[in-house]
């Protein structure tokens, strides 16, 4: 795969993610859909389709990831410490806030990776890392307060789930690296999604589809197929021809898409000050993409 195709995959995947965030905001605000139910449906539906897609071509190899104890442990950790929390926290952040702020706060993930390297792998933060932290804190402050110290634009619940989404995004980035080097991306992501949907079984089975209108069903279908299955596949495919740092920068199309669509179609309030805060948070992704052999080596480990 050449670089231009990789760039296209990264951009399209990010646009799908951003659009799914706006669709979720619509379903929560206008259709009063339960976020736990939507997360469960999203994970189960996309995971099942990915595995069926893989099985059509590879047949019995669909269970190959379960033949080794170490791989099973890695898969379970990815499912319940990476996939599940990243999906749940993101949708909860949208439920209690809105798609633009939830999507931007996800980009706090690199800061948690810095913290992980500092605490667990004893890699002292670079000066540029400290600068990234300060930028992210300043950006988050503007997002939450709109520049007014005594007034919160974003409620405590939305802020909590937004920061949790950033932490979960860091886990999602770090956990599957070894598995993806050994197995097909559809196999890894499909099983991770299917496993992580299990805790939502009770919620999924007790909700009636008969009460849903056509627009709601169409929105759910878009989130499952395009905002989940294809978005994840395109992101992983882009990594085959692009550096992770490049893919990370191109993923800025996600909050851009969510903001434009939410403000345009849902009339979601998003001020210029908040936009500046979002730019500060997103700029940390660009800064973290600057080359550093020691740092990149530790992340890969």
From TrEMBL:
The topology of this chain with respect to the membrane is: Multi-pass membrane protein
Which keywords describe this protein according to UniProt? Answer: Membrane, Transmembrane, Transmembrane helix
Keyword Transcription regulation (UniProt): no
The EamA domain sits at: 5-144, 158-286
Q: Where is it predominantly found?
A: membrane
* Keyword Membrane attributed: yes
Q: Which InterPro entries match?
A: EamA_dom (IPR000620), EmrE-like (IPR037185)
Any Pfam family from its record, for instance, is EamA
Any one of the GO CC terms: membrane
Where would you find the membrane-spanning parts of this chain?
7-29, 35-54, 75-93, 99-118, 130-147, 153-175, 187-209, 215-235, 242-266, 272-290
Cell compartments where the protein resides: Endomembrane system
- Domain of life of the source: Bacteria
The entry's family comment says: Belongs to the EamA transporter family.
Annotated protein name in UniProt:
DMT family permease
Tell me the organism.
Liquorilactobacillus capillatus DSM 19910
């Amino acid at each position: 795969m050449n670089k231009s195709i990789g760039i296209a995959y990264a951009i399209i995947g990010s646009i799908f993610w951003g659009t799914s965030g706006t669709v979720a905001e619509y379903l929560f605000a206008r259709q009063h859909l339960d976020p736990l139910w939507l997360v469960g449906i999203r994970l189960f539906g996309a995971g099942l389709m990915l595995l069926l897609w893989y099985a059509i071509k590879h047949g019995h190899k669909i269970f190959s990831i379960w033949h080794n104890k170490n791989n099973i442990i890695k898969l379970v950790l990815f499912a319940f410490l990476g996939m599940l929390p990243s999906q749940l926290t993101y949708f909860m952040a949208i439920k209690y806030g809105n798609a633009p702020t939830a999507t931007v706060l996800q980009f706090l993930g690199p800061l948690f990776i810095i913290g992980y390297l500092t605490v667990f792998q004893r890699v002292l933060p670079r000066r540029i890392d400290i600068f990234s932290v300060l930028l992210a804190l300043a950006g988050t402050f503007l997002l939450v307060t709109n520049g007014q110290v005594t007034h919160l634009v974003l409620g405590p619940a939305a802020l909590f789930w937004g920061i949790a989404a950033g932490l979960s995004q860091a886990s999602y980035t770090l956990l599957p690296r070894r598995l993806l080097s050994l197995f097909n991306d559809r196999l890894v992501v499909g099983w991770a999604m299917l496993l992580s949907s299990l805790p939502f079984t009770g919620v999924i089975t007790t909700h009636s589809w008969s009460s849903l209108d056509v627009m709601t069903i169409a929105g759910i279908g878009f989130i499952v197929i395009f905002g989940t299955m294809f978005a994840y596949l395109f992101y992983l495919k882009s990594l085959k021809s692009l550096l992770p740092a490049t893919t990370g920068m191109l993923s800025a199309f996600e909050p851009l898409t969510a903001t434009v669509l939410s403000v345009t179609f849902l009339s979601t309030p998003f001020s210029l000050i908040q936009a500046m805060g979002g730019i500060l948070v997103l700029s940390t992704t660009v800064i973290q993409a600057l080359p550093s052999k020691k740092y990149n080596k530790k992340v890969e480990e």
